[in-house]
Design brief:
Layout: E1 5-10, H1 12-19, E2 24-26, E3 30-33, E4 42-46, E5 52-58, E6 64-71, H2 79-94, E7 103-108, E8 117-122, E9 125-130, H3 139-149, E10 154-159, H4 161-164, E11 177-180, E12 187-191, E13 194-198, H5 213-222, E14 227-231, H6 237-244, E15 249-254, H7 257-269, H8 274-278, E16 280-285, H9 288-297, E17 302-307, H10 319-336, E18 337-347, H11 354-367, E19 372-378, E20 395-401
């Protein structure tokens, strides 16, 4: 694979950020380019004295025109370079993967030196998700490297909405197997001894929400003897952990019939676990806001309520709308938690900080005349390391209702 090498000059502010290690160069930061380029071309950034500053991949169709791969020191961006980076990411996680776990994130984009690229492992399957067209021409090489380094049966390609809409995709399609054996449905992987089905080709994200692993374990420790409500339950991750933790009952809510059906399938998958098989389950299909309102009208109460909504703020302009949605969920959650019960409230929006989120919870509780102790705030699981502020998206607040 031969790619064009393009010399690039950027603004002083952009150069300052590059020297601090930031991996993005925006369109309005580029002063000059030696030639026009295509997605995946090598962009070499020089300062005003023609000294090397960084090297990355060009994406002319994105606002982030250059995804930087290496800062400060020149490098040949070739197969050996990528192999070393993949091995670095693997070694960083090798001793941190919990026992009885074969599902985890291997590459977390910019934080592992691969801007716009996610790689998740599910047992003997790998999912590559691309958020930039700059990776299209590297997929064959990367697939070969993952096959060489990992003991896998297949690699599935997933794409962001923006990438799926592009015309530069060649023969690639979202959900296609780009290496190894074809799929005949979801795969099974293990997380902390609990088995889950994951639909790698059509499921949300790459098939599962691996970033909440540590919070699922915390919920398990809190669930003993409790009636639990899991809102935005997807395929039941929090639900099964709560059941294994000794919950009396678990009620799960999701708008997708497919997701609700997956909860039942995951319960059956773990039928040999006595606590999971004996727990009482109520799986509800419906809009989370409306279903919570119905539960409130029916005066339902739960000792443990988990609310893990999708990101309501995909851009800065949606921040206020997101904050209003979170406030509404918090109010509903507070009304559903029994006295001395616990509310677990999550946010996956990077545009709302942990401090803002905690403040919103406390202020909303005060407006509802609810006494609340926010006793813990957590973030990502170990395999989602945060090296740039924009990557710090997950917040999970643990609140006791007094």
């Amino acid at each position: 694979m031969v790619r064009k090498s393009i010399a690039v000059r950027v603004t002083k502010d952009a150069l300052r950020n590059i020297r601090k290690g930031h991996p993005w160069v925006f369109e309005n930061s580029i002063v000059s380019m030696s030639q026009e380029g295509e997605p995946g071309d090598i962009a070499v950034i020089f300062d005003e004295r023609k000294r090397f500053a960084a090297v990355g991949l060009l994406d002319p169709f994105s606002m982030i025109k250059i995804k930087i791969l290496q800062h400060g020191k020149p490098a040949n961006i070739n197969e050996e370079w990528f192999k070393e980076k993949i091995n670095d990411a693997l070694m960083m996680r090798k001793d941190l993967v919990p026992p009885q776990t074969d599902g985890y994130r291997l590459i977390y984009g910019e934080n592992d030196g691969f801007p716009g690229l996610i790689v998740d492992i599910y047992g003997d399957s790998v999912v590559i998700k691309i958020y930039s067209l700059c990776w299209i021409d590297y997929l064959e090489m990367l697939s070969g490297l993952f096959a060489e380094i990992l003991n896998i049966k297949r690699i599935v390609l997933r794409m962001s909405r923006q990438v799926k809409r592009a015309e530069f995709l060649q023969e690639f399609k979202d959900g296609m197997v780009i290496y190894g054996q074809e799929l005949n449905g979801p795969v099974v992987f293990c997380e902390n001894g609990i088995y889950f089905y994951s639909d790698l080709q059509r499921g949300q994200k790459t098939g599962f929400f691996l970033d909440q692993r540590d919070n699922r374990s915390r919920v398990e420790k809190l669930a003993q003897g409790k009636n639990v409500l899991n809102v935005f339950s997807y395929s039941g991750g929090f639900s099964l952990y709560a059941a294994r933790g000794g919950a009396e009952s678990v009620t799960s809510i999701d708008i997708s019939p497919y997701a609700v059906e997956a909860i039942a399938q995951n319960i059956n998958l773990n039928s040999e676990n006595e606590k999971i098989s004996k727990c009482r389950y109520i799986n509800l299909t419906g809009d989370a806001f409306e279903t919570m309102d119905t539960l409130i009208k029916n005066r339902e109460k739960f000792e443990l309520v988990i609310i893990d909504p999708p990101s309501f703020a995909n851009s800065q302009k949606h921040r206020d709308k997101a904050l209003n949605a979170y406030a509404k969920l918090i109010r509903s959650g507070l009304k559903l938690v029994a006295k001395n019960g616990i509310l677990v409230m999550a946010s996956c929006s990077s545009r709302i900080t942990a401090e803002e989120f905690a403040d919103l919870i406390v202020k909303t509780a005060k407006k509802e005349n609810c006494k609340l102790e926010l006793f813990e705030m957590t973030g990502h699981a170990f395999d989602h390391p945060v090296k740039i502020p924009e990557a710090k998206y997950l917040k999970c607040a643990y609140c006791k209702i007094l």
